[in-house]
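User: Could you go from structure to sequence for me? I need the amino acid at each position, not a summary. Structure tokens:
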């Protein structure tokens, strides 16, 4: 007997539960209108028989693939080197797994990959998309809109008119930056610098705006553009020390940037926090607790951001399917941030 022939069928589930095939199908495929005692009988039969639904047949009934594309607009070398993406993916994966949905990871190395992602999403392979780390000139939002798939974005949208209608999850980047810089000023620091993230991303722009909210008309030489990487933090810190050797505090756009800045300060013989206080952003524990010294930073709940993105998308999919109790949810959710004090500031 072949493996296919030995698999239990939906008819066998219906017979074991003592219900019609149509009733068994509605229960297995998540349909409504079946009394709870019958639902329990069908579920018990499924468990006893080890029945596994045929996904292709189930998709024809439910018009759902139980798969969600996660699109990260970064090359794989960046994604697999930055703990931020691992934390966000973990949150997304936990939420999708809890709802029996699969994660399909799509990365973009260049323009050709953008077109490939657009074709994949338009091809009807997934129920929706979760998209993050977009850049302001990125063609992905337009391609995704053309594909017509329900989408939730990670980070405040900053592109075109469609941004106003986008569903997104973000952290209070501007407020968190203000809190960090106020803390540095409260320590008595007077030459407070900022190493930005990549300024074609809204999170970096918002954190720069938060810095400026506190520092006002600070010396423009105290702001140096980085790229959210340790190497970018090293380069920017060297530039800062050349421009402003009397700098006594640095707010870095993320923890990786701060780690690079700390290495340069140590090389140059600057004591942290005695000579220069340093604050990061993210509170990624594999980074923040292992820098020398341990990093004071602004905490955003990265894993929860991922879970919430997935939750909003699944809620939207249920609403479109007409499931009872499902609503579209808010268009944008901004999670709070908190300052976590360690040794560096």
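Assistant: Here is the amino acid at each position, in order:
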């Amino acid at each position: 007997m072949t493996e296919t022939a030995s698999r239990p069928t939906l008819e066998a589930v219906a017979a074991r539960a003592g219900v019609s095939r149509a009733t068994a199908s509605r229960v297995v495929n998540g349909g409504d209108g079946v009394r709870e005692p019958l639902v329990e009988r069908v579920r018990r039969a499924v468990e006893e028989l080890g029945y596994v639904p045929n996904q292709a047949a189930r998709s024809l009934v439910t018009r759902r693939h139980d798969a969600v594309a996660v699109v990260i607009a970064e090359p794989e070398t960046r994604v697999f080197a930055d703990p931020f993406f691992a934390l966000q993916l973990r949150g997304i994966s936990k939420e999708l797994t809890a709802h029996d949905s699969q994660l399909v990871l799509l990365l973009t190395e260049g323009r050709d990959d953008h077109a490939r992602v657009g074709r994949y999403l338009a091809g009807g392979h997934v129920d929706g998309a979760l998209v993050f780390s977009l850049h302001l000139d990125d063609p992905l939002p337009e391609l995704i809109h053309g594909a017509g798939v329900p989408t939730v974005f990670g980070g405040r949208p900053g592109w075109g008119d469609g941004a106003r209608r986008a569903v997104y999850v973000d952290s209070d980047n501007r407020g968190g930056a203000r809190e960090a810089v106020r803390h540095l000023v409260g320590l008595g620091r007077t030459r407070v610098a900022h190493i930005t993230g990549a300024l074609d991303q809204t999170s970096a722009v918002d954190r720069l705006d938060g810095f400026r909210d506190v520092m006002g008309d600070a010396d423009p030489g105290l702001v140096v553009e980085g790229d959210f990487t340790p190497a970018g933090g090293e380069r920017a810190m060297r530039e800062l020390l050349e421009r402003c050797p009397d700098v006594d505090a640095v707010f870095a756009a993320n923890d990786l940037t701060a780690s690079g800045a700390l290495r340069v300060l140590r090389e140059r013989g600057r004591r942290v926090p005695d000579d220069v206080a340093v604050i990061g952003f993210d509170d990624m524990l594999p980074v923040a607790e292992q820098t020398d010294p341990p990093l004071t930073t602004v905490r955003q709940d990265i894993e929860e951001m991922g879970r919430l993105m997935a939750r909003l998308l699944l809620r939207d999919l249920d609403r479109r399917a007409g499931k009872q109790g499902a609503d579209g949810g808010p268009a944008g959710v901004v999670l709070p941030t908190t300052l976590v004090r360690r040794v560096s500031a």
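One structural detail worth keeping in mind: The first helix runs from residue 3 to 6.
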